[in-house]
Specification:
Strand order of the largest sheet: 2-1-3-10-4-11
CATH superfamily of the largest domain: Bordetella uptake gene, domain 1
Number of domains: 2
CATH class of the largest domain: Alpha Beta
Oligomer: single chain
Low-confidence stretches: 1-21
Strand content: 15-25%
Mean pLDDT: 90
CATH architecture of the largest domain: 3-Layer(aba) Sandwich
């Protein structure tokens, strides 16, 4: 073997196994878990819970980085532009993966091209809540009240699950209300408690403590069955909207070119955490269910919902402002 061929073979034998070993050994340094939203919202709460357990499971810190604004677009663009090396993962939801780019074609990212879905983290219904100073104690009361005056409602931003759930509520009930977008669910909840907005439909993980402590008044949940943590709340179907059903989800994704061995390892660790006794208990406490779906199943869900919500946006009056 001549010197050139010998050196080439030696270089290849050194580099190829090392690259494979790096993938196998991932992570070898801290991982950023990017949240395209503000602190105190459902996505942020679940990200912090998951990050703590991934840190223990994989032996490196998983650091939550909240990037609120533009209905999650700021955080999603930052994630899409991150190195695809496994050291930036991103929490996603229906809005950021399936809705935003239909509402805002210039959002700056393409969810089906720029990201690899890893797994759903959790899914479940939301809660319809009002400021307790409103003279309403049921969905029927609220609808009657809304027919005599125009109320406003808050959400973490255009295209987010709470926004979509509220727009569906308006459509099914035949009522009007003014949308007030915020940079995160925590900020919207704070303004609801303060009386700056009248009602919202928000994740149980955010609203359940406020309902139980009387800071807001819960009226109903958006799924097809009641939830054990708030059994007193009827479903919106029970409350008089027979066709209403909305279940939100939060998931984990990586930049699109992230090596498959890293994606697989992230999926295995995440699904084991979610489907553990601790994971099931954590989600049950907030009336939700853990994810842990395969990467293929989650990707199929994302693609199906991307098409579904695209049709909804095209056929409805939902518009970003």
């Amino acid at each position: 073997m001549d010197r050139r061929r010998f050196c080439s073979a030696l270089f290849a034998s050194a580099v190829v196994p090392a690259w494979g070993a790096n993938e196998h050994e991932w992570p070898v340094k801290p991982v950023t878990l990017l949240v395209p939203g503000g602190t105190g919202g459902v996505v942020d709460i679940r990200a912090r819970w998951l990050a703590q357990r991934l840190s223990s499971a994989l032996g490196q810190p998983f650091v939550v980085d909240d990037k609120p604004g533009a209905s999650g677009n700021i955080g999603m663009v930052a994630a899409a532009r991150s190195a695809a090396d496994g050291y930036t993962l991103v929490m996603v939801h229906q809005g950021t993966m399936c809705v935003n780019t239909h509402l805002m074609p210039n959002a700056g990212y393409a969810p089906l091209k720029d990201f690899t879905p890893i797994t759903r983290v959790g899914f479940g219904p939301l809660a319809l809540v009002v400021n307790p100073k409103l003279p309403v104690h049921s969905v029927t009361d609220l609808l009657q009240y809304m027919r005599t005056r125009e109320l406003n409602y808050g959400s973490p931003g255009f295209g987010t699950p709470p926004h979509l759930a509220a727009e569906l509520f308006k459509l099914e009930a035949g009522v009007k209300a003014t949308h007030v977008p915020y940079k995160g669910g925590g900020a919207a909840a704070s303004d609801l408690i303060a009386g700056h907005i009248d009602f919202s439909i928000e994740g149980l993980q955010v609203m359940e403590p406020h309902i139980n402590e009387g800071r807001v008044r819960g009226l109903a949940v958006t799924g097809t069955r009641r939830v054990p943590v708030l059994p007193q709340l009827p479903t919106l179907r029970e409350a008089g909207l027979p066709n209403y059903n909305y279940v939100g989800w939060v998931g984990l994704a990586a930049p699109a070119a992230t090596p498959r061995p890293i994606v697989d390892k992230a999926w295995r660790a995440t699904s084991q955490i979610l489907l553990s006794a601790e994971g099931r208990e954590f989600f049950a406490r907030v009336g939700a269910e853990p994810g842990g779906d395969s990467q293929e199943a989650f990707e199929l869900l994302v693609r199906d919902e991307y098409e579904k919500w695209g049709r909804v946006v095209r056929e409805s009056a939902i518009k970003a402002q």
